[in-house]
């Protein structure tokens, strides 16, 4: 006869039944969520929920709803209906909610009604990480020390051309580093945005988009074949003719450009005209931005080894967070509508990512100590403990990486 283990009789009364707390071990992330949210003074953030009244049932505390969302987003559960269902069947959620079970509408309204609060919570968590030197802002990758996200925003335009400056300013303020270096991909390249960053003392590294490939493939001269002579304020064409600056000025969207043009008679008889102009165009002309020299400097900088290293470093820093957000946190689309509400949910997603990243980096126990240190106003001891823990972690990772490489 087979000998199998037998479970408890579901109908039998236990003399000392286990408490819910016994089902949640000390290293469960749900305890970190509970400690973190309890350390926040939500009343100072202007959180909006139904406050209840003297008549009827009391309202659910906003801290409870924030805990529900942090747990849900950490575990790829974002739907308010699914969260309501988890509260009734998931032992971790039962522990977190202390037996309370808000309905899906109450849960959904918290996310919908508090976008500003969620954005502030994201910023405050970045400051928390910065307070223990986990974020220094030496190099920030848009799309970083330890791959934390320090700035985030959403755009309705579907392109990133006007996002470089606002995100760089966010990152500068979040890190507190006045000499911050920002690396972004070519989708962020915008001369106007680069100038704004330079004016603010932000060192930006953005590849310049190659929009002249088709011209090159056709054997035509591209703009870089025309050399600017700063002393004479003119362009020299590939046939060594001069394009002089004209009085014509083009202004649009705050950008001023000056026109440089050759004369018709010279271009008409030019021996390499076919490589330069269409048959119907009488003479070559170029437009130069009033701050074009700044872009010339940027172009030269992007050819250096340092710049190329920065862009490679950006790929390593930026792709990890978004891969984690999509694969581990289950994000594929936003569940709210309207730019303001979407910005709030976006901040909640980024907060959840940073929260998960911090737990993975220092563990639950150190995180609990950090929260206690913040509450007491003394984080120097835990700050040192975190630094020592990470130093050991980095050493062993490097050691095992070296061991693995020896066998490859």
Task: Describe it.
The protein folds into 3 domains: 20-113, no CATH class; 118-208 and 303-407, no CATH class; 213-291, no CATH class. Helix 1 runs antiparallel to helix 2. The longest helix is centred in the last third of the chain and has 38 residues, at 339-376. The protein has 14 helices and 8 strands. It is an alpha/beta fold.
Summarize the structure.
This protein is of the alpha/beta class. The protein is built from 14 helices and 8 strands.
SSE diagram, text form:
Elements: H1 29-38, H2 62-74, H3 80-89, H4 91-97, H5 104-113, H6 115-131, E1 139-141, H7 164-175, E2 181-183, H8 191-199, E3 203-205, H9 213-217, E4 227-229, E5 234-236, E6 242-252, E7 255-261, H10 264-268, E8 285-289, H11 292-301, H12 305-327, H13 339-376, H14 380-407
Parallel strand pairs: 1-2, 2-3
Antiparallel strand pairs: 4-5, 5-6, 6-7, 7-8
Helix pairs in contact: 1-2, 1-13, 2-5, 2-13, 3-4, 3-5, 6-13, 7-8, 13-14
């Amino acid at each position: 006869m087979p000998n199998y283990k037998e479970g408890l009789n579901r109908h039998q009364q236990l003399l000392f039944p286990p408490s819910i707390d016994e089902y949640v071990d000390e290293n469960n992330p749900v305890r970190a969520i509970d400690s973190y949210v309890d350390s926040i003074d939500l009343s100072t953030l202007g959180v909006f929920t139904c406050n209840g009244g003297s008549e009827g049932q009391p309202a659910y505390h906003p801290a409870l709803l924030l805990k529900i969302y942090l747990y849900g987003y950490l575990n790829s559960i974002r739907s308010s209906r699914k969260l309501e269902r988890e509260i009734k069947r998931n032992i971790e959620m039962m522990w977190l909610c202390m037996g309370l079970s808000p309905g899906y509408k109450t849960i959904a309204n918290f996310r919908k009604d508090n976008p500003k609060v969620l954005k502030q919570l994201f910023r405050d968590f970045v400051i928390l990480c910065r307070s223990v030197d986990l974020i220094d802002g030496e190099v920030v990758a848009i799309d970083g020390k330890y791959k934390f996200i320090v700035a985030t925003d959403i755009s309705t335009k579907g392109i990133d051309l006007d996002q470089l400056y606002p995100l760089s300013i966010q990152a500068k303020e979040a890190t507190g580093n006045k000499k911050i270096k920002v690396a972004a991909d070519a989708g962020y390249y915008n001369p106007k945005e680069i100038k704004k960053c330079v004016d603010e003392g932000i060192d930006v590294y953005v590849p310049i988009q190659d929009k002249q490939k088709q011209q090159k493939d056709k054997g035509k001269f591209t703009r870089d074949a025309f050399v600017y002579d700063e002393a004479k304020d003119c362009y020299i064409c590939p046939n060594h003719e001069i394009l002089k600056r004209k009085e014509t000025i083009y202004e649009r969207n705050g950008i001023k450009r000056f026109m440089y043009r050759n004369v018709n008679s010279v271009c008409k008889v030019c021996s390499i005209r076919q490589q330069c102009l269409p048959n119907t165009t009488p003479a070559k002309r170029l437009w130069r931005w009033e701050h074009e020299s700044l872009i010339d400097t940027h172009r030269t900088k992007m050819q250096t080894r340092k710049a190329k290293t920065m862009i490679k470093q950006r790929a390593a820093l930026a792709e990890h967070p978004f891969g984690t957000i999509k694969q581990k946190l289950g994000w594929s689309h936003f569940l709210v509508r309207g730019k303001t509400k979407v910005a709030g949910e976006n901040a909640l997603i980024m907060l959840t990512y940073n929260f998960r990243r911090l737990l993975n980096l220092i563990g639950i126990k150190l995180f609990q100590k950090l929260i206690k240190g913040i509450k007491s106003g003394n984080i120097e001891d835990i700050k040192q403990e975190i630094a020592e823990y990470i130093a050991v972690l980095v050493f062993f990772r490097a050691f095992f990486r070296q061991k693995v490489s020896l066998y490859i």
